[in-house]
Amino acid sequence: MEDIKEKKLKLRREAESGISALRESDLDAKRSRIGKQLFEFANFREAETIFFYAGRGGQAAGESIISTCLNTGKEVVVPLFDPKRPENTRLLKINSVDTDLCTGAEGIGEPDPEKCKPMPFEKIDIAVIPGMAFDEKGGRLGSGTGRYDRLMPMLPDTARKVALAFEEQIFPLIPMEPHDKYVDIIITEKRIIYKI
Asked: Average pLDDT, whole number, for the chain?
């Protein structure tokens, strides 16, 4: 068990190192290409309600991608996690990145419950899932909190689970444990990877 945890930690560090070695202008160019691929993706174009996460710096899904979704008429929902009771996670619909997102207790963006309306999980057509590292089989390595591994089974079976990632986050093999969840599709600045 400890061996897998060590491997996961090493992969997280490698991914962070690969991303931090890039200039901000390179990251912005990669994010732009990833966004373009996402917006041209058939499942995304057909979707009405998109699940997104409010990312940290250095992640492929920037606020500009969420803003573009909102500007094209998509409904965007963002999770509001309850740190004491993970099963109480709520989805809230945002209308603006600037006014509806605030900084949560851990410094991560989250929807403002005073301004955003609840949205049921079953409304989600496509879910953009965060991660630190991925493999071509859909293996996903998150930040280590297990939040999204617990959340993903709450999404409808019909909702595609999509990750947006830099090529620096793609590895040959992610060690997966029984509680770890896979994504269906990974979109990078160079390609779209379908779970094989």
From this structure: 89
